[in-house]
Design brief:
This protein is α+β, with helices and mostly antiparallel strands. It has two domains: about 5-240, 3-Layer(aba) Sandwich (Aminopeptidase); about 245-315, RNA polymerase II/Efflux pump adaptor protein, barrel-sandwich hybrid domain (OB fold (Dihydrolipoamide Acetyltransferase, E2P)), CATH 2.40.50.100. Helix content is about 20%, strand content about 30%. It contains seven helices and 19 strands. Helix 4 crosses helix 6. The longest helix has 17 residues, at about 210-225. Bound molecules: zinc ion. Zinc ion binds next to loops. Zinc ion binds near residues 57, 60 and 142.
Length: about 350
């Protein structure tokens, strides 16, 4: 007896088969039909079902590239369990290169959604009921918002026993415990007993080669930990654990001159940037409110008073962070022999 078919949206995917199942969404007002393609890799051998999703925010595209490379991995031929992959969840937002849906709602604040609700609520409901519920665990791939950049990090509710070891296994440079916000995919999925971790790396509407490689390696690491792929001999370097994070905000509106970049260690009272007017007067320092590492930053040097310019994470593991930074700089550790070689995107 072979393994049973994997049923999704009324389609049976056979063991050893790779199939794209289209799930219908509300269409465009141009009489154009819209689907959410779900890639199903149903392994020949029994095992768990992992969901990997990207572009819940329609302009966050690093994850789409991570998924493209994941689906090319030759090791998937020996997959144990089932991989459910949705490269573009927010199809309508992706189409207009927007974080939001055309109704200006944030899909990641619209879960669990409703069948008869708003456009965002309908999309959330379809994704949750047709796809998420079919998985045992999920990895949702994000980037920072437009004009902002995030250092590669995993955000997960580390109080969930089924999720914490796998969030560690991803082995992103940084790991942050965070309870899921209301209305988020992460929150609604955990109510449905499908724990989800979020990978945050890079900037919206950009490809970032390091963020992509770290993300691909992380997904493969989690699949190994879940027994879906065979184990690697050398365990990955553990993540730097951040105990808490804080935003550093602009003291006034103006033009910003940055003095620190992502991954830099900073001390309380350090000047991180200056903000001033175009005439060169009235310049004020932007001062760090705590010791820590820069995990997020705006890339647009034009800010309003109160705007979050830096995101600082508190950690005691400065030397481990240094090791991650070195590895990310030479990129060497990401050229794992079992991962398909890709030309580097610059
Ligand atoms: Zn996002």
């Amino acid at each position: 007896m072979g393994r049973a078919d994997f049923e999704i949206h009324g389609v049976g995917v056979k063991a050893g088969q790779k199939l794209v199942v289209d799930i219908p969404l509300p269409g465009l007002y141009t009489e154009t039909t819209v689907n959410m393609p779900v890639h199903v890799v149903h392994g020949k051998r029994e095992g768990p079902t992992l969901l990997v999703s990207a572009a819940v925010h329609g302009d966050e595209i690093n994850g789409v590239e991570i998924i493209r490379r994941l689906l090319l991995q030759p090791q998937l031929k020996k997959l144990r369990g089932t991989l459910l992959v949705v490269p573009i969840v927010n199809v309508l937002g992706f189409h207009i290169q927007s974080r939001y849906l055309p109704d200006r709602r944030d899909l990641n604040r619209s879960f669990p959604g409703r069948e008869q609700g708003s456009l965002a609520a309908r999309l959330a409901h379809i994704f949750l009921s047709e796809v998420v519920r079919r998985a045992d665990l999920g990895i949702d791939l994000h980037t920072a918002a437009i004009h902002r950049d995030n250092f590669p990090q995993i955000r997960a509710d580390m109080s969930l026993e089924s999720l914490a070891p796998l969030a560690k296994a991803f082995a992103a440079p940084m790991l942050i415990h965070s309870a899921p916000p209301d209305g988020s995919l992460r929150h609604s999925a955990s109510v449905e007993q499908v724990p989800i971790m979020v990978y945050e790396a890079g900037e919206a509407l950009r490809f970032d080669e390091v963020a992509i490689r770290v993300g691909l390696r992380g997904v493969v690491n989690v699949m190994r930990e879940m027994g879906m792929l065979s184990l690697k001999r050398k365990p990955p370097k553990p993540s730097v654990v951040l105990r808490s994070t804080a935003w550093v905000r602009a003291p006034s509106s103006g033009l910003v001159r940055m003095l620190v970049k992502l991954g830099d260690m900073v001390s309380k009272e350090d000047v991180l940037a200056f903000v001033g007017d175009a005439g060169g007067s009235g310049e004020k320092p932007i001062v760090s409110s705590s010791d820590g590492v820069i995990i997020g930053r705006t890339n647009l040097p034009l800010v309003y008073e109160g705007e979050a310019v830096f995101h600082v994470g508190r950690t005691r593991q400065a030397s481990l962070l240094e090791q991650h930074l070195d590895a990310m700089q030479d990129g060497g550790q990401f050229n794992l022999p079992e991962i398909v070689e890709e030309p580097e995107i610059v």
